[in-house]
Amino acid sequence: MKNKRKILLALVLMAVPTVWAYAQDRPPAPEIQNILNRKKLIVALHSIDQPPFFFVGKNNQLMGLDVDLARGMAESLGVDVEFNRKAKVFNDLVDIVDRGEADLAISKLSRTLKRAEIINYSTPYIVFRQALLVNRLELAKKAPSTEDIAPFIRDFTGKLGVIANSSYINYARKNFPRATIVELSTWDDVVDAVFSGEVLAGYRDEMEIKKIIKSRDDAALKVKSVVIKDEKDHIAIAVKREHLQLLYWINQYLETQDLNLTAEVLLDKYPQIFADK
Prior knowledge:
By secondary structure, the protein is an alpha/beta fold. About 45% of the residues lie in helices and about 25% in strands. It contains 13 helices and eleven strands. The strands form two sheets. Strands 1, 4, 5, 6, 7, 8, 9, 10 and 11 form a nine-stranded mixed β-sheet that branches. The protein has a two-stranded antiparallel ribbon with strand order 2-3. The longest helix is centred in the N-terminal third of the chain and has 24 residues, at about 1-25. The model has no long low-confidence stretch (mean pLDDT about 90).
């Protein structure tokens, strides 16, 4: 009996190197092999800088969290990185990936069900709370006392500014059905509209609101931030829906980074975005 066990164990041990060699000899999945063959990872980025995710620094170098992630992935694959910045709106990023013009999109891209009909998303690498940037003077007309603010926000009426062709259009329709949604080309346009009183509030993630409060000297007098604690914005990486092995690889890469990011941590990591404010 003991001899039989020894023989069986020996056979198992002999098989292990064979299995390992087979795994090592298998070529990568086609989408990964294509990246290796061209010696370049192509990453879609929005055409407009979104600091601290991606922006051109003083030395004219592209930098930021998403840029660092893209470069780290390329380095892990042993290839260079190229950034495709043709996207004029956030939904363009989805189309660029779907058409195969980029291997992935790392571009402060919100994860939505509608976009997930077209592309695959990685696990989120940062999760924000949603927030409002509200014009103080106009808010005082709607909610005269501090106690009135929370009920008013829950049943928001008035003009609500959002970036056109962004995830926040659907968020606004879902969470503020009585609001008049005003779509503007850029976040800067939304912010200007809030400060001027053209819209009552601008709707985006907490980090963008914090940036405005921190960077503008007139913010304390003219606007107020309201964080919506039970509404989240999951930021993730987009890949072509057929490229499941690349998606798995990306998720493993993110897991190894142990990012543990918050809005505050991210703003502290890239203080240069406030240098010229």
